[in-house]
């Protein structure tokens, strides 16, 4: 299937395209040689991501080779970070001198995102027809022409079909809720007949199994298939409109988060995005260290055929494939006693000492590996020196690194260029080591970052949150940093970066190392009590009480981001609300905005309700008062004036209980002056039937088991509750 | 010659990307390419053959390195080299014969330095040169100087022999050599084009009425062979094993039915079940090694064993461009190609089995998809090439007259020296 | 390689060098007299086989000889014949004897194969002959070679060498020379060259053979063959990773010597007793053996035990590779094991064997072609059928 089909396909592409387009435009492609993320720091501080070797060959080679064999004729390589390096590399490579395949580079130094890049390309006005948009770290062997034809046909029918996304089936790991490429769970709603993309949600790992679609979707489309087992290959076939779209909405930065979602959300322009699923062929993008590991292994296992070391010798010397997936370059000096395990690639001119064990690893050119070394699942680049008795497990070691004898790399370690690890030193797990000190401000280096997942957004509150969350970790890291020289043991050189830039909890998710077993156990644990949480919550409100703390607690300590999210969310909601008050916006609009917030943060209604109520109270408190009576009035005013807003989120008992809890929390914590008014406000809410009676009763029953301190307000409200109970009994009687 | 270079590079890229499929196509392309290389090569008056040979060898090594698995390329390169040597020899001996009549007369003293050819009679030289074209044999062991030395000798002696003669026939000769070589290469290309027909012509002698033929996968040679028999009004039935994982058997079955042949499609695993009803197994090959072993599409070794078990003749059809002068060592690995596992199973379906994020990080599921089998000579009953039917043990003879001994190293050189 | 009876002096020296226990010395002491004995009267242990062979398809048949004599001229022939016969009988000073001495001198050189030595010796004969015509020269040569062959009938490569050379003298392009002297000198020069070729042969074979050794393979080796050793050496130099099983090689324990040599190259090597072959065959990837002689059937004659190893390997579908120089191709066609000149060699059992007990002392066996996979020769890699073709082509 693979090669033969491709060959015929490529041939077909060249022929069949010509007649149907009278004005023949060469098939163009835009290759973004910059990922606009910092996932691969600290390595990417010194070398652009696209030049990092994947099974001993720079990623960009794979991308270009694929484009070339897929019948693309013109490629524009957009370099931003380390533009010089990229252009120099291309100069040296044979790509610029290909017969019918032209590669042009576009340099830019002020682009901070894919959006900027595309805008710049638009200004250059080099794209004349449909073009392929990939980033330089994408690797595929698919044949484009079916996707292309589909795209063209759609375009003929409907000029709004501007983009075709290539997707591929790939199941999630049930435990970690992330794809094998280490990316978060991805939800897509696709129209099964037209293959139109209707909904695209990346960061779903925080909403606990609930996903809310806009009901308009269901109204508009007769049928929808909802996938969480699809992998976005980040290969897009775009019409020229895409570029202009980017230019029109200059705030589009990220391809998916802004552009795709933007198109999907606003149906004013009515642009449509379609998907093309590939089955037999391979496509994936090196997004993080995990996917680096996964894709390398896919290459070694030949899923990317013919993009495999022994077939495509990219200029470098011939590699032979031996039994059980051992790839050897021709000149290797290997001791007889050395054992080279399966699925290993060994580069040219590498020498391996006695009794050294190597398994599941990639070793670059000109490395010298001593005796009694254990290398397992690691990626060692060129000219690395590993002295005797070292142990490397699931780590990435860049060019020119020296690992002195007896030292150990624990899983997930990344050693950037020319780092020296001292003798008998153990590099702690998941630590990233570089000769360059960690930049204090994130955008101080040229590879600019844009929000990639919310844990990456650098804002003081979560940074703080992290610090006190994983205090011990950051602290020992900091005191390591204080002694920069001795960080890597005697004779070592390099700084160990503190991890808190990306959420440290995320490290195990995205590192080369496989997820440690205890971690898996932990997650699966939390997952199933999440499950029974939601389950019990569903049927028995009475019992939901003792579970709620549990639910909250784990949402605190095992899932930081959820926590941060809610923190944000509340801020945002409050901001919106205040704006609404001051600019007296219509209630409906406020509701809309809050809804959108809710969507983008994946919050439940309860949270919204809580947040709104909270912000109302804040408002009320904000108004000047000198007696509790005035305060009460203020509260009442606010509540009455924004009753509708609040009620629109009080769909059920849970929300109401949520409000009460929130209220209680506020009274106890920030607004002591409110506490005396608790009961009054409570029954006011009851009168205005914002809160139903059994909600209150449930709240009370929950509190039954809580400790005294927690029950002050229950006591305070005792009379009211009493009365409520009687009322209910009466009702039951008659 | 930038022109040729670009051609060569293009072809090399094609080979690397596995864009040319089928050894016949590859062989043809290679031959055409080499022809243009030769025609572009400008050669001096002395030692033209040497120049041509070097040129061809240089290109040849690159080609072989580009896709060592596609054996046909190497074969064609060697064939062309052989052609050059052959043509050069015929010219040289002709020249020498003319020369000696004059030479012997003047110096009849007894100086016997080995490389003073004029003293030797033309026949001796011819013998000497012949020994360089034949693989070394017991005679050549004793008769003349070691082979490797021989070619430059004869050609150079041819060169200085003309030192005496007039410059006119220099040019004529240099042109003649090239011309002859290109002629011969054209013939070679001709042969490659017609090999299917050549083989198909013999179909009638092998396929008889009411026979049952088994084949696996799809091969153009086999298809034409069967059709030829069909056209000769033979009525017979064909069992086609589908040939997983590429299932080209399905295509073959379609073709056969279109030609009005009784066709039965079976799974590969059903071969042992069906073999007892089969009169003859006819299959194509990827390459035929010097010992009569066959590099064939995967699955054929099983068929061969089944055939042997039930004493069914196992016939292999192979164009002469598939004859490889090398002996297979460790063929299962070295002469094999592992294709993409996606031909076997759907990546999406099994993606969770290949999640390296959990567990030891080493994949538990390996999918291996070798393209070829090695069928040992003792399982093959008959080879049908465009020169007729041959016994496996006879293959080396064919190879002996297609290739000259000191071209064999071509591939070996390519492997370690790169 | 199994050393034939006459060459045990040499053996002794080498054994001494590769510090061996006296056990292997014992045969040499015993056979030293045997050799002298063979020197005294050639026609002792000449097997019936050899005689019939000489009679039927000897290199120079008797009728050819008579024709030749006729050609040379009656009178000269008479005394020629008489003198030669007298030489043969009163085995005093005469050509054949000097040939043997010559031969022995040549053979002193450690790694000069016996066949080469023979041819060098014959070359010396040519040099020192006063013959004035090709015919006479050939007659002398024939006598010389015959005496050489009959001197040690058990040595196949010696016979083969002589046959090869005689073959070359009688019918090759050498005869196409106009005048006798140039022809003669050419013969000598060819003979010299032959020595070099035979030395080159080993290197060629090594180059061919080492391709078949792939990383991580296990090779079973039987007997001590210089060619096989050369192959393994080359492979080791080319950084091939392989390990070797050596059979002990009773009775002269030549397996030990091979294992020593390999250990020097730090190739991982393991010694087996001869009877452990089948036991360890499943680990083995290929079998490498040398050969005393390669016969017309394409089979080989080699040290005792080769046959059974080949059988075991065959039944387990392991390839059996033979490394042999082309001058070992002999014009024999053994039909079974007993169909050869028995090369006897005493076996030391360590304990006294009662005289009633018979001991099989034959030192070599015949391995039929169907059990051999390929032969590595300096003519290239050949399958057994090719070998027989070669021989037939040559002596047709």
Automatic annotation (TrEMBL), chain A:
Annotated region described as Disordered, given as residue ranges: 531-563
Chief location category: cytoplasm
CDD domains, alphabetized: eIF-2B_epsilon_N, LbH_eIF2B_epsilon, W2_eIF2B_epsilon
SUPFAM superfamilies linked: ARM repeat, Nucleotide-diphospho-sugar transferases, Trimeric LpxA-like enzymes
GO molecular function terms attached to this record: guanyl-nucleotide exchange factor activity; translation initiation factor activity; translation initiation factor binding
Quaternary organization: Component of the translation initiation factor 2B (eIF2B) complex which is a heterodecamer of two sets of five different subunits: alpha, beta, gamma, delta and epsilon. Subunits alpha, beta and delta comprise a regulatory subcomplex and subunits epsilon and gamma comprise a catalytic subcomplex. Within the complex, the hexameric regulatory complex resides at the center, with the two heterodimeric catalytic subcomplexes bound on opposite sides.
Subcellular location: Cytoplasm, Cytosol
Organism of origin: Trapa natans (Water chestnut)
Any one of the GO CC terms: eukaryotic translation initiation factor 2B complex
Protein name (record): Translation initiation factor eIF2B subunit epsilon
Name of a matching Pfam family: W2
Keywords attached to this entry: Cytoplasm, Initiation factor, Protein biosynthesis
Organism superkingdom: Eukaryota
Every W2 domain range: 563-734
Family: Belongs to the eIF-2B gamma/epsilon subunits family.
Residues that span the membrane, as ranges: none
From TrEMBL, chain B:
Keywords: Cytoplasm, Initiation factor, Protein biosynthesis
Region (Disordered) residue spans: 147-177
Pfam families: IF-2B
Coiled-coil intervals: none
Record-level GO cellular component terms: cytosol; eukaryotic translation initiation factor 2B complex
Entry superkingdom: Eukaryota
Biased composition (Basic and acidic residues): 161-172
Compartments, as annotated in UniProt: Cytoplasm, Cytosol
A GO molecular-function annotation: translation initiation factor activity
Quaternary state and interactors: Component of the translation initiation factor 2B (eIF2B) complex which is a heterodecamer of two sets of five different subunits: alpha, beta, gamma, delta and epsilon. Subunits alpha, beta and delta comprise a regulatory subcomplex and subunits epsilon and gamma comprise a catalytic subcomplex. Within the complex, the hexameric regulatory complex resides at the center, with the two heterodimeric catalytic subcomplexes bound on opposite sides.
Family statement: Belongs to the eIF-2B alpha/beta/delta subunits family.
Designated name of the protein: Translation initiation factor eIF2B subunit beta
Organism: Trapa natans
TrEMBL record, chain C:
Superkingdom of the source species: Eukaryota
Keyword list, A-Z: Cytoplasm, Initiation factor, Protein biosynthesis
Compartment(s) of residence: Cytoplasm, Cytosol
Pfam entry (one): IF-2B
First-listed, main subcellular location of the protein, grouped into a coarse class: cytoplasm
InterPro entries for this protein: eIF2B_alpha/beta/delta, elF-2B_alpha_N, IF-2B-related, IF_2B-like_C, NagB/RpiA_transferase-like
Stretches for region Disordered: 1-25
Annotated Gene3D superfamilies: Translation initiation factor eif-2b, domain 2, Translation initiation factor eIF-2B, N-terminal domain
Record keyword Transport present: no
One cellular component term from this protein's GO annotations in UniProt: eukaryotic translation initiation factor 2B complex
GO molecular function: guanyl-nucleotide exchange factor activity; translation initiation factor activity
Recorded family membership: Belongs to the eIF-2B alpha/beta/delta subunits family.
Assembly with partners or alone: Component of the translation initiation factor 2B (eIF2B) complex which is a heterodecamer of two sets of five different subunits: alpha, beta, gamma, delta and epsilon. Subunits alpha, beta and delta comprise a regulatory subcomplex and subunits epsilon and gamma comprise a catalytic subcomplex. Within the complex, the hexameric regulatory complex resides at the center, with the two heterodimeric catalytic subcomplexes bound on opposite sides.
Protein name in UniProt: Translation initiation factor eIF2B subunit alpha
Organism: Trapa natans
Phylogenetic lineage: Eukaryota, Viridiplantae, Streptophyta, Embryophyta, Tracheophyta
